[in-house]
């Protein structure tokens, strides 16, 4: 059983901060459950370009408002508390929070916590053996498809 709090994660290696958002990685690949879970808070007025070419992501908005622009299909969706979107087609997308937006994100395959968005907003596919720590040097980086 895994039990964690956001307070335990704050200001650790699982707490990733960028100029536009902060992501607390609650469950990661090395937990061995087949998915990862993050709480991500996006800053009001920020513009965030993402493309998860190697992962399926589901995002549930718990607070705040903004819009999701689907770059692949040229459609815009309004988001608010209780909204969810699932990037089941690896869509290139842009998040534009009007207010601070708090989300819960689930990734499959799970991320290790070491991924960094490249110039296209893509995370590389990094695989590890369940129970193996992501920082041990045993992680395998797969080429983006």
Structure description:
The protein is mainly β. It is built from one helix and twelve strands; from the N terminus they run αββββββββββββ. A six-stranded antiparallel sheet has the order 1-2-3-10-5-8, with no helix packed on it. It has a four-stranded antiparallel sheet with strand order 4-9-6-7, with no helix packed on it. Strand 1 and strand 2 form a beta hairpin. It is globular. The C terminus is likely disordered.
- Give the spatial strand order of the biggest sheet: 1-2-3-10-5-8
Distance between the termini: 34 Å
Average pLDDT for all residues: 87
Largest sheet: 6 strands, antiparallel
What overall form do the CA principal axes indicate?
A: globular
Q: What are the low-pLDDT stretches, counting only 5+ consecutive residues below 50?
A: 134-145
Record field, number of beta strands: 12
Count of alpha/pi helices: 1
State Rg: 15 Å
What structural category do the secondary elements indicate? mainly beta
Order of helices and strands: HEEEEEEEEEEEE
Fraction of residues in β-strands? 35-45%
Helix content: under 10%
Give the arrangement of secondary structure elements.
Elements: H1 6-9, E1 15-17, E2 21-27, E3 36-42, E4 48-51, E5 56-63, E6 66-70, E7 75-79, E8 84-86, E9 92-97, E10 101-108, E11 125-127, E12 140-142
Antiparallel strand pairs: 1-2, 2-3, 3-10, 4-9, 5-8, 5-10, 6-7, 6-9, 11-12
């Amino acid at each position: 059983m895994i039990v964690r709090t956001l307070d335990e994660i704050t200001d650790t290696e699982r707490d990733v901060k960028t100029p536009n958002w902060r992501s607390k990685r609650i469950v990661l690949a090395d937990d061995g459950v087949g998915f990862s879970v993050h709480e991500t808070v996006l800053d009001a007025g920020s513009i965030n370009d993402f493309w998860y070419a190697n992962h399926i992501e589901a995002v549930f908005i718990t607070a705040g408002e903004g819009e999701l622009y689907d770059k692949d299909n040229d459609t815009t969706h309004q988001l608010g508390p209780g909204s969810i979107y699932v990037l089941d087609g690896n869509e290139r997308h842009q998040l534009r929070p009007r207010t601070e937006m708090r989300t819960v994100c689930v990734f499959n395959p799970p991320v290790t916590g070491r991924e960094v968005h490249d110039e296209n907003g893509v995370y590389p596919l990094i695989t590890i053996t369940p129970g193996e720590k992501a920082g041990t040097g045993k992680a395998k980086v797969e080429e983006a498809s």
